[in-house]
Amino acid sequence: MKSFRRKLAVILFLVVVTFPGAWAQLVPVPHQREFTDSLKKELDYGPFFGLYKDTYFIVGTKVPGIPTQYNSDVKFQISFAIRLTKNVLPWHTFLFLAYTQKTFWNVFQESLPMGDINFNPALGISKPFFNQGRYVGKLSLIVEHESNGRDGPDSRSWNRVSLSGMAMIDEWLMVHAKIWVPIVDGENNRDITKYCGIYQSGVVLTTPNRRWTFGFTWVKRAGFNLNFNTILEASWNVHKRTNLNLFAQYYNGYGEDLLHYNQFRTMLRVGLVFKPRFFSEF
Q: What per-residue confidence (pLDDT) applies to 21?
């Protein structure tokens, strides 16, 4: 037990010192007109490389229950996107290449083995929408692949053609949704939609000072029953001039990782998250 607590202390220390470059990323808190102008400029002219989904480093355990070396782990995600065209495309669309890697690290076990690593490259085209000087949302068509890079019986992979959308209901409220056509090529996960779903939706709430952000995402699994995978998230920005955020994530359902996609789990983890300049993708 002492060894477990010692490892937990080390991991919490790593959480504090990981991604030092995030301090340099400024988080804007503009009025609506300034926000819209800034967003238009960035979409039209760059930068061409940046964060895509949330990038985080978190540690936690299965709930409810007593933490042990077998039900606790570190989860971290790295995600970025590159815009592929320098000029603005017709209808003010933009083409991008994205890559997300999600890793589950069994740091409390002997030799600190990796539990599973999920690789998720994507190619997409997005169209933002503006109305009377206000950003109202965007639509994206995305072709993506996801696999865990293993062979033999542990190999998992599938592909998706996704239509993704988000809408700003107010400055503090955003809703998002994503539906996909699955193309399952993995021999060992033919039933993956039964667990990883066929569409998802959610809401994001932000406090007026933009210090607190709360997210709720639910993924509908295949079938006619009310069966969902649920993700609850909360983050707190430590200072308005940094992109460093304390972060908590609760996952309930199947498909958190590809290797164990058909195993139900409930996990609570805490750590740090670094968010894209304007919006996170889902």
A: 35
